[in-house]
Amino acid sequence: MATLNPAPNKVQPGKTKWDRVQEMDEFRLLILAKKEFVLPATVFFVVYYFLLPVLVGYAPALMSRKVWGPVNIAYLFALSQFFMAWIIAFAYVGAARKFDKYGAHILDTLKKEGYDDRQDGKEGL
Amino acid sequence: MHFDMTLTLFLTFIAITLGITAWASGRSKSSASFFAAGRSITAWQNGVAVAGDYMSAASFLGIAGLIAFFGYDGFMYSVGWLVAYLTVLLVVAEPLRNAGKYTMADVLAYRMNPRPVRAMASLSTLVVSTFYMIAQMIGAGSLVALLLKGSGVSFHTAVTGVGILMIIYVVFGGMLATTWVQIIKAVLLMAGTILLSILVMAHFHFSFYEFFTAVSNVTYHTPDGKTVVKDFMTPGLRFKLPYGPLELISLGVALIFGTAGLPHILVRFYTVPDAKTARFSVVWAMVIIGTFYILTTFLGFGAATIVGRDYIAKNGGNNMSAPLLAKAIAGDVFFAFICAIAFATILAVVAGLTISASTSFAHDFWTNVIHNGKERKPGEERLVARLAAFVVGLVAIGIAILLGPTANVAFLVALAFAVAASANLPVIVLSIYWKRFNTAGAVMGLAFGLVGSIVLILIGPSVMGIDPPSVVGAARHPIQMAPLFPLENPGLLSVPIGFIGALLGTFLGTVDPHAVQRFEELEVRANTGLGSEKAVAH
Question: In chain B, what are the domains?
Answer without folding.
Answer: 2-401 (1.20.1730.10)
